[in-house]
UniProtKB/TrEMBL annotation:
Annotated catalysed reactions: 5-phospho-alpha-D-ribose 1-diphosphate + nicotinate + ATP + H2O = nicotinate beta-D-ribonucleotide + ADP + phosphate + diphosphate
Residues of the Nicotinate phosphoribosyltransferase C-terminal domain: 378-434
GO biological process: NAD+ biosynthetic process via the salvage pathway
Record's comment on post-translational modification: Transiently phosphorylated on a His residue during the reaction cycle. Phosphorylation strongly increases the affinity for substrates and increases the rate of nicotinate D-ribonucleotide production. Dephosphorylation regenerates the low-affinity form of the enzyme, leading to product release.
Name of the protein described by the UniProt record: Nicotinate phosphoribosyltransferase
Segments traversing the membrane: none
Organism whose genome encodes this protein: Rhodopila globiformis
Protein family membership: Belongs to the NAPRTase family.
Xref: InterPro entries: Aldolase_TIM (IPR013785), N/Namide_PRibTrfase (IPR041525), NAPRTase_C (IPR041619), NAPRTase_N (IPR040727), Nic_PRibTrfase-Fam (IPR007229), Nic_PRibTrfase_pncB (IPR006405), Nicotinate_pribotase-like_C (IPR036068)
Keywords of the record: Glycosyltransferase, Ligase, Phosphoprotein, Pyridine nucleotide biosynthesis, Transferase
Top EC category: ligase
Pathway assignment: Cofactor biosynthesis; NAD(+) biosynthesis; nicotinate D-ribonucleotide from nicotinate: step 1/1
Origin organism lineage: Bacteria, Pseudomonadati, Pseudomonadota, Alphaproteobacteria, Acetobacterales
Length: 452
């Protein structure tokens, strides 16, 4: 993970903090993080990244060196820079648990804190929650497209930086991937790691048989051999000839990997070759430019593929790499606030999301209501921090997997398809009434030009 520096922020956050301080604006503010609309080809999103967000808030402080640098840089006044060493997060947080399915305009996190603290948290909170939510939502589609198949994250080399690679492994594992090829994810998060070999290993040898056998004798555990460097079916035949000799040494070939060409056609041919040699226990694993649509097509066609390694389309969320994600002020000094910017208006007040279910456990609809507005259904935002300290023990990523799996299982059938479709999200009477009152007051405020 990158260093948790408060200088990893937007300059305007520091500029606003200095202005707040100059005018004594230190009352309690309420900010909520939400997504305005779904990207194309998405029927839902999945909240992820809460653990890293809470860790950030707990460690939110400027070091003496950073305060000195700000003073010397003149990005803020020297006097204001001298006050920043005392800044800590002392506020409250409510959030949806990681792995929770959510929909547009539903807050997934609410921060209630003195204005400067809540404001300064914005940039990094969006950075952390947005990215893992993007990846988790992409991974969820892949899990739904390939029920019962082993999915692995192969995205390190195509991820946009080191932190992104590590958090891709985390977010995809949260959603049901079996593991990752990224070694550091095992050390940091305890996520299972998997690996095969590169084509360069095969090419470095004079022939495939020698390459396979040398690799097998050095790395016999969970042995997977890459067989498409030259000719896929010929590679499968070499595996068949090698298997008895390895078996005599107590080495079992667990799988072969296909990484190119028509994966469905090659998988059928390889399966036939292996079965004819009595090697029905060897699994077939596929990789190479796959996304959820390609995976689903292979599964629907009955291709005898047991698992998939997914890189670019996962780590870069290639078809929907960004969300229209916002962190907006909803209340200040006890008064509700509403933004009316064209195309970016917000609903005022601190809110709760209530979810109703069918008898079979599938989602019926969500209602976004004011936090103190009585409403049937399961409240999704839960207390996480009070006074800057955790009031619950956050689940590990291993524990959160179960919640994520349950969320996917309870999706309506229409949302389990890859074609876009959205669950009904309703706004309560209380929110609409509050918004109408604020709009009316704004229209009659002194200096406000009446609408034409």
């Amino acid at each position: 993970m990158v260093e948790q520096s408060l200088l990893l922020t937007d300059l305007y956050q520091l500029s606003m903090l200095e202005a707040y301080a100059a005018h004594g604006m230190a009352e309690t503010a309420v900010f909520e993080l939400f997504v305005r609309k779904l990207p194309p080809n998405r029927g839902f999103l999945v909240a992820a990244g809460l653990e890293q967000a809470v860790q950030f808030l707990e460690s939110m402080r400027f070091t003496p060196d950073e305060c000195a640098w700000l003073r010397d840089s003149r990005l803020v006044s020297p006097a204001f820079a001298g006050t920043l060493h005392d800044l800590r997060f002392t506020g409250d947080v409510e959030a949806m648990p990681e792995g929770t399915v959510f929909f547009p305009n539903e807050p997934i996190l609410r921060v209630t804190a003195p204005l400067a603290q809540a404001q300064l948290a914005e940039s990094r909170l969006i950075n952390l929650l947005h990215f893992q939510t993007v990846i988790a939502s992409k991974a969820a589609r892949m899990v739904l497209a390939a029920p019962g198949k082993q999915l692995l994250d192969f995205g390190l080399r195509r991820a946009h930086g080191a932190e992104a690679a590590l958090l891709t492994a985390r977010a995809s594992y949260l959603m049901g991937f079996a593991g990752t090829a990224t070694v550091l994810a095992n050390r940091v998060f305890g996520i299972p790691v998997f690996g095969t070999m590169a084509h360069s290993f095969i090419q470095a040898h004079d022939d495939e048989a020698t390459a396979f056998e040398r690799f097998a004798r050095v790395r016999p555990q969970a042995l997977t051999l890459l067989i498409d460097t030259y000719d896929t079916e010929r590679g499968a035949a070499i595996v068949c000839a090698l298997a008895p000799r390895l078996a005599a040494a107590g080495i079992t070939i667990g799988a072969v990997r296909l990484d190119s060409g028509d994966l469905g056609r090659h998988a059928r041919a390889v399966r036939a070759i292996l079965d004819a040699a009595g090697l029905r226990g060897i699994r077939i694993f596929a990789s190479g430019g796959l996304d959820e649509h390609g995976i689903q097509a292979l599964c629907r066609d009955g291709a005898p593929i047991d698992g998939f390694g997914i890189g670019t389309s996962l780590a870069a969320a290639a078809d929907a790499p960004v969300l229209d994600c916002a962190y907006k002020l909803q209340e200040y000094a006890g008064r509700p606030k509403r933004k009316l910017s064209e195309g970016k208006a917000t609903w005022p007040g601190r809110k709760q999301v209530h979810r109703r279910y069918h008898d079979d456990g599938s989602i019926v609809a969500d209602v976004v209501a004011l936090a103190d507005e009585p409403m049937p259904g399961e409240p999704l935002l839960q207390p996480i921090m009070r006074g800057g300290r955790r009031v619950v023990q956050l689940p590990t990523v291993h524990q959160a997997r179960a919640h994520a799996a349950s969320g996917l299982a309870h999706l309506p059938k229409a949302l389990k398809r890859l074609e876009p479709e959205a669950i009904p999200v309703q706004l309560s009477h209380g929110i609409r009434h509050l918004a109408a009152g604020l709009d009316a007051a704004l229209d009659t405020a002194p200096g406000r030009k009446p609408p034409s």
